[in-house]
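Table 4 source record.
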Amino acid sequence: MVYKGCDIGSAKPSKEVLKKYPHHLIDVLSPNEIFTVGDFCRFSKNIIQDIHNKNKIPIFVGGSMMYFRSLYLGMHNLPNRDQNLRKQLKKLKSNNGEYFLFNRLKKIDPDYANKINKNDEVRIVRALEVYENSGLKMSRINSNDSKKNLTENYNVVQFCTFHERNILHERIKNRLDRIIECGFINEAKNLLNKYNIDIDHPIRKSVNYRQAFDYLENIYSYETFYEKALFATRQIAKRQITWIRSWDKFTKISSDKYELLHNSIKKLISAL
């Protein structure tokens, strides 16, 4: 939802809803730019402080569990993403073989390399990027307990809703059908025509857009696009549930008892 123009595929709230219920982190960047987990944490902390200054309670809803976890547990202060360096690393990999970057990382930081999969290109590239731009090894960074947990400054209350598997799958299918009916394929086409979206851009890897782009670029048929988008959404829902179940200190709310969530938030507000 942070990217302008990615409205239908991300199920972004309508203008009417946004006007009635103000949201943050909507339409923050153009698809020419990249929004990282570091950006999310930095923006979020400013938003939290601003809302508290207004004597109100910030509420975070939905989204990536990795992003929420990074905000909640804190992040190390690392160099920003370096797109030019990433392109150089990608070229080196292309010229020297599949495991060239992993082997390069292993020479620089064997302790960290031994803890990750040699096919985990995201972590390999990030580790090399951090080292090249700061001289710091990820193994040393991870051993340095300098992260600031959000609970050091705020009282964080966590809620989570769970659905039966058949209900969840039905809602996922209905959501996909709805965004397609609303013109999702045309939206994806407009994004490809308007922006030069790099192959490594997060939009290219996001559920629905990834499958739609592959369909529009004739990699597979419409029927395959639909099935892959449906499967990918189910998989991400499954991963989110796994993430949540590994957490502690959250209140479970069943899908038919949202009133409990509403009342809990009301109590928090009245306690201000």
